[in-house]
TrEMBL record:
This is Thiamine pyrimidine synthase. The keyword Cytoplasm does not apply. Residues 50-262 form the SsuA/THI5-like domain. It comes from freshwater metagenome. Pathway: Cofactor biosynthesis; thiamine diphosphate biosynthesis. InterPro entries: NMT1/THI5 (IPR027939), SsuA/THI5 (IPR015168). Responsible for the formation of the pyrimidine heterocycle in the thiamine biosynthesis pathway. Catalyzes the formation of hydroxymethylpyrimidine phosphate (HMP-P) from histidine and pyridoxal phosphate (PLP). The protein uses PLP and the active site histidine to form HMP-P, generating an inactive enzyme. The enzyme can only undergo a single turnover, which suggests it is a suicide enzyme. One of its GO terms (molecular function) is metal ion binding. Belongs to the NMT1/THI5 family. Homodimer. GO terms for biological process: thiamine biosynthetic process. Keywords: Iron, Metal-binding, Pyridoxal phosphate, Thiamine biosynthesis, Transferase. The lineage of its organism: unclassified sequences, metagenomes, ecological metagenomes. Pfam families: NMT1.
Length: 336
């Protein structure tokens, strides 16, 4: 029996190891690496599922989240004010918030939240008026319904003042979230609401209704809805946050290209949604998913946000000008 020298012995052992590995793993051309399981993430909506959220549901239906390394669970909030509480308690990873709610939450607890993406790039707030109100300053001496939220007064004042009227002469009445029935019944001459929701619903019933958008009467074109997380989550789980943003950007880009697919995804996940009404609302809001001056879905523009922050304080939503540098992380949305 021949004696193997050390060098030849090492070569023989290495060759045997390669054969063993090939036998265990199969042919090298077909061997695959098991992908890592996607990270679970809970996203809380700002309101019950509606057309604005269609791109979110489409991103999950298409698997955009899993391709980005995230298994996204979409949760409607128990009430509209619960999203902030869930985030701060660590029971949600991300949430959609109205930008005014974000500013107020930061005023109560500075540095507790940070926005990483714009969902809707323009204000949705408006004053919806009877046909007889031909312009906002015509509300002087007449009844205008407000929900009672701090932002309602700012929206009404900005729109009336932006048309040269005196907001102090408008008779405000609190009607809660009953703008549609209050206007249809003629109980008020106008009411604050969202042009993409109440505005669309009322226009379908009464085409002569007037819709005065806040950014057409003095307000900057700020992003109404933003994706928010906590600084701790962004710091400790950056890939989860960035993966979620990437998935949502794909979902909303696909929604713009194929709105009907987004409505199908929305109604499949939220069966109580009226598909026809949701399609009308989605058609109205589609242009607001991208910046007015052009740009990508999700973009956070600091110059626009600084103008918004000044307006936010001027009309009394916040006591001081929001700290834009602390509240927004535009680089997350800009990452490709």
């Amino acid at each position: 029996m021949p004696v193997l020298r050390p060098r030849r012995l090492a070569i023989t052992i290495a060759a045997a190891a390669l054969v063993l590995l090939a036998g265990c793993g199969g042919d090298s051309d077909t061997a695959t690496t098991t992908p890592a399981a996607p990270s679970r993430a809970t996203l809380v909506l700002d309101f019950t599922p509606n057309a604005v959220h269609a791109g979110t549901y489409l991103a999950v239906a298409r698997g955009d989240d899993r391709r980005a390394g995230v298994a996204l669970r979409i949760e409607p909030p128990p009430t509209s004010s619960d999203a902030v509480k869930l985030l701060l308690a660590g029971r949600a990873d991300l949430a959609y918030l109205d930008i005014h709610d974000l500013a107020l939450a930061d005023e109560r607890a500075p540095g507790s939240l940070v926005a990483v993406m714009a969902l809707v790039q323009r204000p949705l707030a408006a004053v919806i008026a009877q046909a007889s109100v031909t312009r906002p300053r015509g509300l002087e001496g007449r009844r205008a319904g407000v929900s009672g939220l701090p932002s309602d007064r700012a929206v009404l004042d900005s729109i009336v003042r932006g048309d040269g009227g005196d907001p102090a002469r408008v008779r405000r009445v609190t009607i809660g979230f009953q703008a549609v029935p209050a206007l249809l019944a003629g109980r008020v001459a106008a009411a604050t609401g969202f042009w993409n929701a109440e505005g669309v619903a009322l226009s379908a019933r009464r085409p002569a209704m007037r819709i005065f958008r806040v950014d057409e009467f003095g307000a900057p074109s700020y992003p109404e809805l933003v994706l928010v997380t906590t600084p701790r989550t962004l710091r400790e789980r950056p890939q989860l946050v960035r993966g979620t943003v990437a998935a949502l950007r794909r979902g909303y880009t696909a929604t713009i290209a194929d709105p009907q697919a987004a409505i199908a995804a929305l109604t499949a996940a939220a069966p109580g949604v009226d598909a026809a009404a949701a399609r009308r609302e989605l058609d109205a809001v589609l242009p607001a998913f991208t910046p007015a001056g052009g740009g990508a879905v999700g973009t956070l523009d600091l110059a626009t946000l600084r103008t918004w922050a000044t307006w936010e304080q001027r009309f009394g939503i916040t006591a001081s000008v929001p700290d834009v540098g602390r509240l927004f992380a535009p680089r997350v949305a800009a990452a490709r």
